[in-house]
Design goal:
The protein is built from 11 helices and 12 strands. It is α+β, with helices and mostly antiparallel strands. The protein folds into 3 domains: 97 residues, 2-Layer Sandwich (Beta-Lactamase); 73 residues, Orthogonal Bundle (Helix Hairpins), CATH 1.10.287; 150 residues, Heat Shock Protein 90 (2-Layer Sandwich). The structure holds adenosine-5'-diphosphate. The site of adenosine-5'-diphosphate (ADP) has 22 residues, from α9 and α11.
Length: 404
């Protein structure tokens, strides 16, 4: 072997051993990588398993809650098929779970429950589940439910239908109304007797009275009148709540009712130094189909409120406008107004604004509740605008006769 060849062999053997070392180190690092990958996979599997266990636990928890809810619950898929139903809902339908699960809710038939009204509430006429709704439904005589439909966000068209039994609340409401009605009826007779006795004494039928006696009797008479008014308000409200507020509508001119009631309030207006302006079109207005006595209650409440809640020297304006299908009535005053944070309670029973309570004005908080019921029973609408210390305007519409 020449020197050159020996050198070459030496060189190639050293290169070979270098290669061997690099393969070996490559094998070592690949093995290390595999070990790391394996351990990473194991970690992922462990995490997935853990997540799966958590999901199963959460699902069991949710199902237990759903199953034991005091409300009936259905989960419907996008084709209205029942995916989940709880025991309460099954009891309501009087069905076994396997009879209805995965069935279209609108195809369920029952001889025991009238489902027509239930389907109407959740799906309307075309039996397509409503996006969101909440309605009170009466099944039979005494079974009341609040039926809510909610669309489940991000579910691709799934819905939740909840049935909440409100029969007990309704029964309590009914008992309260009956109690108020009986109490008011019982109070009416003695209050009338007191009224007439006081009137006879004031008229001098039982002998001449001193100035002081007359003053005391006048105060008693006024207090008794306020009690009679309160009892009448309570009777009206209980009649409304029991659906016994009878209407005898006829085609009449609303301006006649407005003029009549305005005239009857002349003394109170003078006493408080208030100006009343009537803004009624000269041209005869189309008639409205109304119960005269009930519409009188409406106008009396609006005008008396404006008188009560407008300081001396103020102005009340009543305007009537002929709209396309309706007659619009506005009662505007320059009074104390209604505090903004209490405006959403204005038509609720027994509500009285904090500002008017502070002013020690008399009132039951039943007038506007009655007014709203009367106007809506005439298929009209009522609303208001008010600013504290500036004044209020109450608006109502009534459909022209022949429109409703
Ligand atoms: P009340 O017997 O207290 O007048 P209403 O039901 O007629 O009962 O009215 C309810 C409440 O609405 C009143 O107590 C008062 O706070 C407010 N309100 C009604 N009308 C007016 C008005 N014209 N100006 C200011 N507040 C009013």
């Amino acid at each position: 072997m020449t020197k050159k060849e020996t050198k070459k062999t030496k060189n190639s053997s050293s290169e070979f051993s270098k290669d061997l070392i690099s393969i070996e180190s490559c094998n070592v690092s690949r093995g290390e990588d595999l070990r790391r990958i394996r351990s990473a996979f194991l970690n992922i599997f462990e995490d997935v398993e853990e997540a799966r266990n958590i999901a199963v636990r959460e699902k069991n928890k949710t199902m237990l809650i759903i199953e034991n809810l005091d409300d009936g619950l259905f989960v419907l898929d996008k084709n209205s098929k029942i995916e989940i139903v709880n025991s309460y809902a099954l009891e309501f339908l009087q069905k076994a779970k396997d009879e209805i699960i995965q069935k279209n809710i609108f195809k369920i038939k029952s001889e025991k429950v009238d489902l027509k009204i239930f389907f109407e509430v959740i799906g309307g006429k075309n039996k397509k589940i409503k996006e969101v709704s909440r309605e009170e439904v009466c099944f039979g005589n005494k079974l009341f439910f609040q039926v809510s439909v909610l669309s489940i966000a991000g579910s691709g068209g799934e819905y939740l239908v909840i049935l909440h039994d409100i029969s007990k609340d309704k029964l309590i409401d009914q008992m309260k109304t009956e109690f108020v009605s009986v109490a008011a009826h019982q109070l009416r007779t003695p209050l009338s007797a007191i009224k007439w006795t006081l009137k006879m004494m004031l008229d001098g039928d039982v002998g001449k009275l001193t100035e002081e006696q007359i003053e005391f009797l006048n105060k008693s008479y006024e207090s008794n009148e306020r009690m009679i008014m309160l009892v009448n308000d309570l009777l009206n409200v209980s009649r409304i709540d029991e659906g016994r507020f009878i209407y005898k509508p006829e085609a009449l001119q609303i301006e006649d009712v407005i003029k009549e009631i305005s005239m009857s309030e002349e003394t109170s207006l003078k006493k408080k130094k208030l100006k009343l302006l009537l803004n009624i079109p000269k041209k005869k207005l189309p008639p409205v189909f109304i119960d005269k006595e009930k519409m009188g209650i409406v106008m009396q409440n609006f005008i008396e409120n404006s008188i009560k809640y407008t300081p001396s020297g103020g102005k009340i304006t009543i305007s009537v406008e002929d709209l396309k299908d309706d007659i619009l009535v506005k009662i505007k005053d320059t009074g104390v107004g209604i505090p903004l944070d209490q405006q959403d309670r204005i038509f609720t029973k027994f509500f009285r604004g904090e500002n008017v309570i502070r002013l020690e004005t008399e009132g039951s908080g039943l007038g506007l509740y009655t007014v709203k019921n009367i106007i809506e029973s005439h298929t009209g609408k009522v609303w208001f605008q008010s600013e504290e210390n500036k004044g209020s305007t109450f608006f109502f519409t009534l459909p022209k006769a022949g429109q409703n």
